[in-house]
Amino acid sequence: MKKTIVRTISTTALFSTLFAGSALADTYKVQKGDSLSKIASKFKTSVKEIKAQNSLTSDLIYENQILQISPETATVQSTQQTNYNVVKGDALIKIANRYNVTVGELQQWNNLQGTLIYVGQVLKVSAPGQTVTVTPPQPAPAPPPQPTTPDPSSTSEYTVKSGDSLSKIGLQYGMTVQQLKTINNLLSDLIYVGQKLKVTGDQTPPPVVTPPPAVQPPESSSYVVKSGDTLGKIARQYNMTVQNLKSLNGLTSDMIYVGQTLKVTGQATTAPTPTPEPQGDMITVAKSLIGTPYVWGGSTLSGFDCSGFIYYVANKAGTKIGRYSAAGYYDRSYYVDNPKPGDIVFFENTYKQGISHLGIYLGDNQFIHADESRGVMISNLKSNYYTAHFAAFKRFY
After folding, report:
1. Active-site residue, selected from the candidate residues 67, 106, 125, 306
2. Options 233, 236, 246, 357, the catalytic residue
3. What is the chain's mean pLDDT, rounded?
4. Residue 115: is its pLDDT beyond 90?
5. Structural domain 1-24+81-140, CATH architecture
6. DSSP secondary structure code for residue 63 in this structure
7. Does the annotation count 389 as an active-site position?
């Protein structure tokens, strides 16, 4: 009679055999233009599997992110292992799940009355003549990278001032908001004036706006207001700014009337200066930047504040202007009665007194600007907030 020899191998030996020569989970650095579906297709796996391996709760990924990638769980069959040696920490339910059988089947094949087993005990894990199906364990997903914690020994102290935020302070010291919160044990983004915060590195001073040199005004002459005149029109005629015209005449508003005598400086031009049409490309350039984050003092594609956004867009569209504050641009533009797309809309008394915010008019009461909380976006002039802070429509000289 032919003898049947049953070979018993340990779990470790079995998995060594099953995985010998197979690749472990790979890592992959996310490239520009990647998506989870694109990466899954490349590695012949699924989006669900990648999210499970990396503990992702959404499909959002970012450039240079490191992902763990491995093929989908494979089912491996073995006809050699029908017995199993119990090891420390085992339980019947755990062994049953590993070999895709039930606890009742294990009890039946091993004449067990209960679920008690002991280390070293040899258990049958399949019925005679059956093959064993083993599901190899999945590798644990790598933990997400943690932000670097600044060295406490190299910290200095910063006193919170009015208008400060964690992002603004972080920008000054080359730190992230999370690093500031970690080093100061903050549970939220809330800070208050006078609060002492630990910071690292050297402070980067904000860009200095150099005011134009003071120019002594020439002797003044007089001008009689005619029908159709506006301060902007008169100022252009005499190469003045509206603010200079108002200051010279003690005006507190833009209201003038026919027959009114105004002081002006210089000589009137023989013909009114042609009104430059707003750059048509400004709208295209501005809209292409929607979603760019807000960065205090920023004027590059890494981030903009409101005046840095105007500086970048105008220069890209062909209007060569310097880098000024909102108030600086206000003094370098003239009033318009009928705004056109591409004109500048100014706001006052937002985070400080006076002209403090600006954007590009799109028409139909819409304007595009760099919002402190949402970055470059389109807003409505008829909203309560912007209606309350509206100052003027103006156009660059």
Report:
1. 306
2. 357
3. 80
4. no
5. Roll (3.10)
6. T
7. no
pLDDT score at 241:
87
CA-only gyration radius of the chain, Å: 36
d(CA 312, CA 304) in angstroms, rounded, equals: 9
Q: Which residue of the set 124, 369, 394, 395 is catalytic? A: 369
pLDDT on residue 35:
85
Residue 143: per-residue pLDDT: 58
Q: Domain 220-265 is classified in which CATH homologous superfamily?
A: LysM domain (3.10.350.10)
For residue 124, what are the β-bridge partners?
83
pLDDT tens for 13-64 read 443 444 433 344 578 888 988 888 788 878 888 788 888 888 888 888 888 8
Q: Where are the domains of the chain?
A: 1-24+81-140, 26-69, 152-200, 220-265, 280-396
Confidence (pLDDT) at 236: 85
Q: What is each CA distance from 50 to 53, 61, 74, 137, 386, in whole angstroms?
A: 5, 11, 15, 16, 45
DSSP alpha helices (H): ranges in the chain? 11-19, 36-42, 47-53, 92-98, 103-109, 166-173, 177-183, 231-237, 242-249, 280-287, 306-316, 326-330, 384-389
The answer to whether 369 is a known catalytic residue is yes
Q: State whether CATH 3.10.350.10 applies to domain 152-200.
A: yes
280-396 homologous superfamily: endopeptidase domain like (from Nostoc punctiforme) (3.90.1720.10)
At the top level of CATH, the class of 26-69 is: alpha beta
Q: Is 26-69 in the same CATH topology as 1-24+81-140? A: yes
State the pLDDT at residue 216.
57
pLDDT in tens, 306-322: 999 999 999 999 888 99
